[in-house]
Recover the amino acids of this structure.
């Protein structure tokens, strides 16, 4: 009886061992498959990273090429830039003429008002009417001082630093395309002021 019971235990252990060996084989197979999947995923990840780096470099190259093409196109379209420059210069010239015209008118009013103050002082002496006129004249620094400073500041460096003169190449016109605008405006202003001063003293 003891041998029969022991035989049954041995059979049970053998069956259990067989089941365990089967599970080991299955687990080994699963683990091997998982390792293959991990290797495949690692390989795919490496390929994807390489593709990303390649596309990033390609994108950089394309952007660089585009920037260079746009730069060359901009240089080739220099005539448009030249036209805009000439239009801007023309606007500055027109604005300068308008400014000088207004300045001429203003200086004329100042001279007339100063002459009026002198005549009023001769007639009325120290009078509130004379004081009112002289006060108006003295307000120029307060009312227009900032404007004078802005105009002088905007033009001083243009007068101090003369632009380089580009010598015309052979076969091109020798006449300069543009004159020194600031110098021209300065000359106009000086001529206008000189004329007004002479007129003032001639009338005195």
């Amino acid at each position: 009886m003891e041998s029969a019971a022991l035989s049954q235990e041995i059979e049970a252990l053998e069956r259990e061992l067989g089941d365990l060996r089967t599970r080991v084989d299955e687990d080994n197979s699963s683990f091997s498959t998982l390792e293959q999947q991990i290797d495949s995923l690692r390989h795919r990840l490496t390929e994807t990273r390489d593709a990303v780096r390649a596309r990033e470099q390609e994108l950089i190259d394309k952007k660089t090429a585009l920037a260079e093409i746009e730069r060359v196109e901009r240089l080739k379209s220099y005539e448009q830039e030249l036209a805009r420059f000439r239009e801007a210069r023309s606007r500055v010239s027109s604005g300068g003429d308008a400014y000088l015209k207004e300045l001429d008118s203003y200086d004329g009013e100042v001279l007339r008002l100063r002459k009026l103050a002198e005549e009023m002082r001769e007639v009325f002496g120290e009078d509130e009417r004379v004081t009112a006129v002289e006060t108006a004249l003295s307000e120029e620094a307060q009312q227009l001082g900032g404007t004078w400073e802005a105009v002088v500041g905007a033009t001083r460096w243009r007068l101090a630093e003369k632009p380089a003169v580009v010598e015309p190449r052979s076969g091109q016109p020798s006449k300069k395309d543009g004159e020194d605008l600031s110098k021209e405006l300065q000359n106009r202003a000086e001529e206008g002021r000189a004329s007004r001063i002479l007129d003032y003293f001639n009338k005195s």
Summary: Residues 74 and 80 are 9 Å apart (CA to CA).
